[in-house]
Design a protein that fits this description.
single chain; alpha/beta; Rossmann fold; 7-stranded parallel β-sheet; 10 helices; 16% strand
Length: 346
Amino acid sequence: MDIILDCERMKYPYTGLYEYCYQLGLSLQKLTNKDGLTFYLPQSAENVFGSDSRQIIQKSIHKMIPPRFNADVYHVTYQSTRYMPKSKRLRKILTIHDLNFLYEKNGSRKKIDKRLKLVQQNINAADYLTTISNYVKNDVLENLEIGGKPFDVIHNGCHVLEFDGFDNPIYKPENKFLFSIGTVLPKKNFHVLPGLLSGNDYELIIAGRLNEEYQEKIMEVARSYNVESRVKILGTVSAENKYWYLKNCDAFMFPSIAEGFGIPVIEAMHFGKPVFLSTLTSLPEVGGDYAYYFQNFETDHMREVFKLGMEDYIKNQRYSAIKEYAGHFSWDRCAEEYFDIYKRLS
């Protein structure tokens, strides 16, 4: 059986899709011993799976003239791809990560409909559909037509690089701190967090690719609570820095309002940290009974949830249970579930 894993979105580092393609690719390599596995990669990610890996380099012209893929199964890893193979002989599995564009309110109805049409076209061209959460599956069923095609949910895995002994982050907080990471955009809802710093000496550290306009909104809220000196927005950080902040934070905050899965939640749980989430989209599915939830984003409510959550975490010694729960989210398990589908399609 010959498989092609579409890793075209790896042209965007420091994103969830990059991590998804990279970790799934590594686990599939282990599972197949590199036999029959080919990666469709951007030039910038050439040899990321090893110089001995089989790879096809993506080119812009492939949008109009797809290359001839000599394989049995092609795994499309991005629901809005413009590189969908045309061959009817090639069996295609499409993974849908989210339909967040329906809810982000940053585009016209015409633009939203255009994006929805593209996802529908890719669904029509696929033979098998998967999503990364039940939330996304239900979203797809409500907004798109799947035409009776087989449709499964395969949760993402989680792999955290550890750097024992690393103790030189780009910013070392002076006090105990709260941490969050993700692209700094309104859908991540980071601006509701500075209010948690009132009446205590916590710092808030946010890492992720910056959007200057939204960054300013976060700091504007921080100024309104007179806590701006304790809010640090770092931009993208290295794996070593990410490790340090996850390992040393007092709690992980993720009040996102648009999330297909939420890998950072499991990454924080890997360190046994208390995580505080919104109740929206996929997050209750991912955090389960091992997270604390903001029912709304009123500051007084969020402070109460945070206070009671930290008390529960310490009193009931939740560290070990949270860490054990995170261990269930394995990329090797994820790869095995996809591989079962590949075998069914070939």
